[in-house]
Amino acid sequence: MIGAILHMPENVSALDLVLAGDPALFAIVRLSLVVSLSAVTLAAIIGVPFGALLALTGFPGRQAVIVILNALMGLPPVVVGLGVFLVLSRSGPLGSWGLLFTPAAMVVAQTILVAPIIAALTRQTIEDLWTEYRDELTAMNVGPLGRVATLVWDARFSLITALLAGFGRAAAEVGAIMIVGGNIEGFTRTMTTAIALETSKGDLPLAIGLGIVLITLVIAVNILAWTARRASERLAG
Amino acid sequence: MSMRAPSSELPIRFENVSFSVGPVTILDGIDLTLTPGAPTVVVGPNGSGKTTLLRAAMGLVSPSRGRVTWGGRTDVAPQRRAIVFQRPVMLRRSASGNIRYALRVAGTKRAEWKRRVDEVLGLVGLEQLAQRPARRLSGGEQQRLALARALAREPAVLFLDEPTASLDPAATKAVEDVIHAVSERGIKVVMSTHDIGGARRLAGDIVMLHRGRVIETAAASSFFHAPATAEARKFVAGELII
Q1: Which A residues in the span 100-139 are in contact with B, Cβ-Cβ below 8 Å?
Q2: B57 falls within a domain
Q3: Domain extent for B92
Q4: Are residues B66 and B164 in the same domain?
Q5: Computed from CA positions of residues B193, B196, B198, B203, in that sequence, does the dihedral angle turn out positive or negative?
Q6: A146 at the B interface (CB within 8 A)?
Q7: Interchain proximity A136–B91, CB inside 8 Å
Q8: Consecutive sets of 10 residues in chain B, 242 residues long: mean pLDDT of each?
Q9: Is residue B145 helix, strand or coil?
Q10: Chain A to chain B, count of Cβ pairs less than 8 Å apart?
Q11: ipTM exceeding the 0.85 mark
């Protein structure tokens, strides 16, 4: 099916492809969204509690952990891809799981890329809110777990921005998922890997069409999040 | 507000309490006993240590020297003490959400929440604004909500740090009325102010601080009629104490 588009005549415009609602294109878009949203969800489950704990606890070497965490926000996707590839490849430690060149491997790689971004931004947000809330929560005799829960809940609007930053990173990256997913047609091909492929093959209309879809989706997700944030802010202040 | 058995929080006793931050001494050898009864009002110029005194009495800061005891014991968790800071922090919830939060962390049964929320919001006259986001309330309304949130904990002792400092006369009256009502119900109020009018209207007894030291403690009537120290005479006369 995707072969049908790939062999389309050169004069088919990017817009035609998008407007025609091609099923192969739809499958690519859907996989991209599933992989990136799954990765952001997993990264949030890991990153938000980690960032909050880091914000609220003191231990020797904390400053170093924060610097490293902030540095990990800039992890090169290809390096993460290589690392995950080595772990999941047949001779690697988790090779027997058979995850290499599957969407699951792509989710793992993107989770590793996104978790530090969410954790680092959460740490900063929660730490700032804690300086504001410290006296009140101490006076109300709120225990450590209650503090984390309160701060995460009250910082929820700012934390949405952290999640969006993570989603932006996941949706835009190509290096990691190309290596661990393999860009297999109809299975692990996403918008970014398809754009890279089609560009190098010279099929610019398809590449441009996918590019337009990708940017539109990222904007749409941000509009959704923004609207949800404004609506809930009106309710909760 | 339901009355509980006499608390073990009182008396609160300061025994030679000093508090310093680096080279700066904020409290200097304080000996003071806070007992049940009419409100104790802590007066003194800015920087005299009023806020730190309240925070130490609340148990939020530990003295550098000396000790604070609650009902004869140290290390009493602030379960029956509550404080309203000079600039209270509103949680990012509705007004009633702020009260419910206080009830939850105080361990109040969920079935009681609605009644208690209505009760304390009614006490401070905010029942109409219950659903409003707390951070959108005016300064005076936030002060009253903070008061309601503190009262939701059913404290035996309520500390108020300059509760009327930035309020206009109408808002000041509203807050002072609540303080009066709270005190009538047997809750010990300890408040700081540099407003002599407020001190006259509310105080049962006065503690005057100057440069981190208690320079005068007296029943309000004798403090205002026959102040013993030069600083107290100036304060009573409405002059500036520096």
Answers
A1: 132-133, 135-136, 138-139
A2: yes
A3: 81-154
A4: yes
A5: positive
A6: yes
A7: yes
A8: 58 94 92 93 91 94 93 84 94 94 93 94 92 91 94 94 88 90 93 90 93 92 89 84 68
A9: helix
A10: 54
A11: yes
